[in-house]
Amino acid sequence: MRAAVIQFPGSNCDRDMAVALNQVAGNEKTQIVWHKETSLPDGLDMVAIPGGFSFGDYLRCGAIAARSPIAQAVVDFANKGGYVLGVCNGFQVLTETGLLPGALMRNAGLKFICKPVDLTVETNNSDFTNGYDAGATVIYPVAHHDGNYNADAETLARLNGEDRVAFRYADNPNGSTEDIAGILSENRRVLGMMPHPERCVENAHGNTDGAALFRALAGAMALT
Amino acid sequence: MKARVHVMLKNGVLDPQGEAVRHALGTLGFDGVEGVRQGKVIELDLAETDAAKAEETVKDMCEKLLANTVIESYSVEIA
């Protein structure tokens, strides 16, 4: 498996993501790609967009990052069937590029939330989530100010109808519509989620529930 | 030529920040504030001298960057 992590000014989970991809998903050596690049390294299986505060959250979270030079290369990569994982700010970037529908708004309680939360795995029909049982509860940390997922009724009906809600909050922390914590693209190869799987992959993290996501990805890549 | 863009959350999208401002106004004794919506104003200084062209360009900017039309609406004033 060959993966790259995109780095923007203000990204702060880039290293954690690379460590998870290297140590858990067995990646050879995750490459860090700076946002000013206009193309991705050749032969990649997967691109991760990490958490953080790209461009200081100016204008809207993820808005500037989604128009940076590398963003078009990521969109093209996804449209060709490449795997893309966007976590936290990465999820915000993915909605801003249009790769995933909807938008992330300010938390309903207006507070930054940083704590472990219970999530329900809504579908295991994806190469990200097939290491879990559908309906299982997992604990991932969240750390965000703008995780309140919003989409119109038509988009929600489509996400539900196509089994594209990957995770829901068991106890909604941020006002997110229909408790949505993570969603998949139509081809199920782009996953955007607010909770952080890369922050729960080793014992020192206090919980290893995220490891199954990275192992599932590694398994999918081994088959391609 | 200057342009001013107003970006607001669409009607029907709950504005938690506006609600917080409304509550704070109530705490300060300003009764009768029935709703507060908070938005953004973006001012642009443009080289363009044709108002119609400027408006068209700024609308394109709104669609592509300045507003997220999933949740926000915008209006453009050219001066």
TrEMBL record, chain A:
UniProt subunit comment: Part of the FGAM synthase complex composed of 1 PurL, 1 PurQ and 2 PurS subunits.
Predominant cellular place of this UniProt entry's protein: cytoplasm
InterPro entries: Class_I_gatase-like, PRibForGlyAmidine_synth_PurQ
Catalytic activity line of the entry: L-glutamine + H2O = L-glutamate + NH4(+); N(2)-formyl-N(1)-(5-phospho-beta-D-ribosyl)glycinamide + L-glutamine + ATP + H2O = 2-formamido-N(1)-(5-O-phospho-beta-D-ribosyl)acetamidine + L-glutamate + ADP + phosphate + H(+)
Name of the protein in its database record: Phosphoribosylformylglycinamidine synthase subunit PurQ
One GO BP annotation of this record: 'de novo' IMP biosynthetic process
Known role: Part of the phosphoribosylformylglycinamidine synthase complex involved in the purines biosynthetic pathway. Catalyzes the ATP-dependent conversion of formylglycinamide ribonucleotide (FGAR) and glutamine to yield formylglycinamidine ribonucleotide (FGAM) and glutamate. The FGAM synthase complex is composed of three subunits. PurQ produces an ammonia molecule by converting glutamine to glutamate. PurL transfers the ammonia molecule to FGAR to form FGAM in an ATP-dependent manner.
Subcellular location: Cytoplasm
Keywords: ATP-binding, Cytoplasm, Glutamine amidotransferase, Hydrolase, Ligase, Nucleotide-binding, Purine biosynthesis
Matches recorded under Pfam families: GATase_5
One Gene Ontology cellular component: cytoplasm
Organism listed in the record: Actibacterium atlanticum
Pathway assigned in UniProt: Purine metabolism; IMP biosynthesis via de novo pathway; 5-amino-1-(5-phospho-D-ribosyl)imidazole from N(2)-formyl-N(1)-(5-phospho-D-ribosyl)glycinamide: step 1/2
Active site: 88, 196, 198
Coiled coil found in the keyword field: no
UniProt KW Nucleotide-binding keyword: yes
Molecular-function GO terms, alphabetical: ATP binding; glutaminase activity; phosphoribosylformylglycinamidine synthase activity
UniProtKB/TrEMBL annotation, chain B:
GO molecular function: ATP binding; phosphoribosylformylglycinamidine synthase activity
Major subcellular location class: cytoplasm
Assigned GO CC terms: cytoplasm
Pfam families for the chain: PurS (PF02700)
Keyword Ligase attached: yes
Reaction(s) catalysed (UniProt annotation): N(2)-formyl-N(1)-(5-phospho-beta-D-ribosyl)glycinamide + L-glutamine + ATP + H2O = 2-formamido-N(1)-(5-O-phospho-beta-D-ribosyl)acetamidine + L-glutamate + ADP + phosphate + H(+)
Entry EC no(s): 6.3.5.3
Compartments, as annotated in UniProt: Cytoplasm
EC class: ligase
Role summary: Part of the phosphoribosylformylglycinamidine synthase complex involved in the purines biosynthetic pathway. Catalyzes the ATP-dependent conversion of formylglycinamide ribonucleotide (FGAR) and glutamine to yield formylglycinamidine ribonucleotide (FGAM) and glutamate. The FGAM synthase complex is composed of three subunits. PurQ produces an ammonia molecule by converting glutamine to glutamate. PurL transfers the ammonia molecule to FGAR to form FGAM in an ATP-dependent manner.
Assembly notes: Part of the FGAM synthase complex composed of 1 PurL, 1 PurQ and 2 PurS subunits.
Family the UniProt entry places it in: Belongs to the PurS family.
Protein name as annotated: Phosphoribosylformylglycinamidine synthase subunit PurS
Species, as recorded: Actibacterium atlanticum
